[in-house]
Design brief:
The complex is a heterodimer of chains A (about 450) and B (about 190).
Chain A lengths: L9 H9 L2 H23 L4 H17 L1 H14 L3 E5 L2 H14 L4 E4 L3 H6 L1 H6 L4 E4 L2 H8 L16 H12 L8 H18 L2 E4 L3 E3 L4 E6 L3 H8 L2 E7 L3 E2 L3 H14 L7 E5 L7 E7 L3 H5 L15 H5 L1 H6 L10 H11 L16 H5 L6 H14 L5 H14 L2 H14 L25 H11 L1
Parallel strand pairs in A: 1-10, 2-3, 2-4, 4-7, 5-8, 7-10
Antiparallel strand pairs in A: 5-6, 6-9
Helix pairs in contact in A: 2-12, 3-12, 9-10, 16-18
Chain B lengths: L1 H12 L19 H11 L3 E4 L4 H8 L6 E4 L16 H5 L3 E5 L2 E3 L4 E5 H4 L10 E6 L4 E2 L2 H7 L7 E5 L4 E2 L7 E2 L6 E6 L1
The chains are: A alpha/beta (about 450), B alpha/beta (about 190).
Bound molecules: iron/sulfur cluster.
Chain lengths: ~450, ~190
């Protein structure tokens, strides 16, 4: 995988994505379709809004007692026969996983989808040490074979056309040249990966929910790839962010009713697997990973982002994400949730992300755990603006606007000037906004005059 | 140690205590539960067959071409062998058909809970081409809340909600049934 750039320029990266108009248009429409499926699924549940409130409140409670719940979980998980490890950052996590693999003599591992291991850069770390890592979620496999990061939380290869995937499979798996039928390509990947499941020495998974009371954890997939991995391999390593914890099994009811409906519009993922004991002869290791989460917990005004269950709904609905693609964020977590989490990780590098938003609030409307996403985006702008990261051109424009708007006479003069100039001004004067926009037709008279006339008439 | 440092940081940074809300009882949805369950399974690309007679006769009628057949049911299924915890996965991968008991079906999403005791071996639910879950009509509940009230997920060791056959839409958003796991999922309701 290519190393990420030193700092993300979302607007520039988005232009690159938009250069292929057909692709960009398809991407936009495909994700909007998923958003509409989500709407239908949500509307079918009368208590949907109550569930969102509950989910948010359960997470708020859990975060306020996170240490207690983690300790309870650790004790119960141990009682279940799992080995529990703690990793304060990505380096500790990766070293821990590598050490476990070495101790079990594991050379080949299969991995199901886990944004956390993406965040930790686990694949390149293990590959550099001679371990064969195979991502088994079809979308993840596609991006792994093409040497790029996922571009979406639940649809990793949404930015790829089927013809490109066909060419990739032809080159890497020997499928017939020109084959681009999704069913045929999926069948080819199934055959290829089946053999790898059987050969694997260890299986790595993420965790969707960990239950403090029962010491168990839940993994959701549609493909069944996590289960095929862990039920065939003698070693199962599950990596989870600290925030995945919930108090009791009964709370799974709330979150599972929300997760798949928000993500894809399905009522539930095909497989919702609950692990509470290792299979006979199997070792199960759980790694609890911090990697910046406890620091984020201390950021008042931003800590709610830790409630995220990674459903991807805020990406699907976001007009900016849909039209700029996941890679334009240059971050492991793209979209609105990425734009509120990543500046906490590195404010310099990800300074442009909170500005990659119209603040329309659609993300907040769909979020199943009611994270105030657009509020956080706005607040990040204040924080980053104070550090001089708002963008120079925006700054002088805002100053100018402020000066004009606070002086009535100046404002009236500016209005008259603009009404005249609008006829002649080049679109370029709008900056990037002018690239795809025309000036409006100038009104015949000023608003004040029009308003007076209306009042006299009535 | 990571553990102590993590716990200390949480204690320093965690917000003031917030109460844990109670989960209210939601009004049951309208319409027959059984009909809702069937619609939800079909929505998930699975099939529901109301079963009158015995399972063996259904297998002969519905899957006459099935070659490898295994079952873990109280009744005998002609030609089927019984997998257990020691069955090698290779034997399961060769199965056309695997039948076992489901514990509970959820009407709101068509999911059926299967614990590892019912499956015999965990992988048996994922390797065969066609998985058939036999479920009594009396084991249907409305929502996931009710499901968790009835289940002891911890005692199960391993258990899974299965909603339809394995599927993916990762290539150009085209739905393909049969990603890594079973290509067919049938619920026999009796
Ligand atoms: S922030 Fe909310 S909508 Fe976005 S991925 Fe997380 S849970 Fe889903």
């Amino acid at each position: 995988m290519k190393p990420p750039p030193a700092s993300t320029d979302h607007a520039a990266a988005a232009s690159a994505f938009l250069a292929d108009e057909a692709r960009a248009g398809w991407h936009d429409r495909a994700l909007w379709l998923v958003r509409r499926k989500r709407d239908r699924a949500a509307a079918a549940v009368p208590e949907w809004e109550t569930l969102r409130t509950l989910a948010s409140a359960v997470k708020a409670h859990t975060l306020s007692r996170l240490d207690d719940y983690l300790l309870q979980f650790e004790a119960q998980a141990r009682a279940n026969g799992f080995v529990v490890h703690w990793a304060e950052n990505a380096d500790v996590h990766n070293a821990l996983v590598y050490d476990l693999l070495c101790r079990h003599g594991a050379q080949r591992i299969v991995k199901s989808k886990s944004m956390l291991t993406e965040e930790c850069g686990l694949n390149p770390y293990l590959e550099a040490r001679g371990i064969e890592v195979v991502d088994t979620d079809l979308g993840e496999r596609i991006v792994q074979l093409s040497g790029e990061p996922p571009s979406h939380l639940v649809m990793p290869a949404i930015h790829r056309k089927k013809e490109e995937i066909g060419a990739l499979f032809h080159a890497q798996m020997g499928t017939p040249e020109g084959l681009s039928d999704p069913a045929a390509l999926t069948a080819a990947a199934r055959t290829d990966l089946r053999a790898r499941f059987f050969r694997a020495d260890a299986a790595l998974t993420g965790v969707n929910f960990a239950v403090a009371e029962t010491g168990g954890f839940v993994v959701c997939t549609n493909e069944g790839n996590a289960d095929l991995g862990v039920h065939l391999a003698p070693l199962h390593i599950a990596s989870m962010g600290l925030e995945k914890i919930i108090p009791k099994a009964e709370h799974l009811g709330i979150f599972l009713r929300l997760l798949a409906r928000s993500a894809t519009g399905q009522a539930l993922t095909v497989y919702t697997s609950h692990f509470h004991r290792p299979a006979p002869g199997q070792a199960v290791h759980l790694v609890l990973v911090d990697n910046g989460r406890t620091a984020h917990l201390g950021r008042e005004g931003f800590r709610d982002a830790l409630k995220c269950i990674r459903c991807g709904a805020c990406l699907n609905t976001c007009p900016v994400y849909r039209r700029s693609g996941g890679h334009s964020y240059g971050a492991v977590i793209p979209g609105p949730i990425g734009a509120v989490l990543m500046p906490g990780v590195d404010p310099e590098r990800y300074a442009s992300l909170p500005f990659a938003s119209t603040l329309c609030g659609s993300c907040t409307d769909v979020c199943p755990v009611r994270i105030d996403l657009h509020g956080q985006l706005y607040r990040w702008r204040q924080v980053l603006g104070r550090r001089g990261r708002g963008g120079a051109s925006k700054k002088w424009r805002m100053r100018l606007a402020g000066a004009v708007l606070s002086r009535p006479r100046l404002y009236r003069m500016a209005g008259a000037t603009l009404r005249f100039l609008l006829r002649w001004l080049p679109r370029r004067a709008l900056g990037p906004w002018g690239r795809h926009r025309e000036w409006p037709d100038p009104p015949a008279e000023r608003f004040g005059t029009w308003y007076e006339k209306q009042r006299r008439r009535s | 140690m990571s553990r102590e440092r993590i716990l200390k940081r949480i204690q320093r940074n965690r917000p003031p205590a917030v109460a844990l809300p109670d989960v209210p009882a939601f009004a049951p949805p309208s319409g027959a539960r059984r009909a809702r369950f069937i619609a939800a399974v079909e929505e998930a690309a699975g099939a529901v067959v109301p079963l009158e007679g015995d399972v063996g006769a259904w297998v002969q009628r519905a899957c006459p071409d099935a070659r490898g057949v295994a079952a873990r049911l109280d009744e005998a299924v002609p030609g089927a062998w019984r997998p257990g915890p020691d069955t090698p996965p290779e034997a399961l991968a060769g199965l056309d058909l695997f039948l076992c008991k489901g514990t509970l079906g959820v009407a709101e999403n068509g999911a059926v809970w299967v614990g590892e005791a019912a499956a015999g071996r965990r992988a048996a639910l994922f390797l065969p081409e066609h998985v058939v879950l036999v479920l009594p009509c009396t084991a249907l509940v409305d929502t996931m809340h009710e499901a968790y009230r009835r289940l002891d997920v911890r005692a199960a060791g391993f258990g899974v909600f299965i909603a339809g056959p394995s599927k993916t839409a990762d290539i150009a958003q085209a739905l393909v049934i049969g990603a890594h796991g079973p290509r067919r999922l049938t619920v026999l309701l009796r």
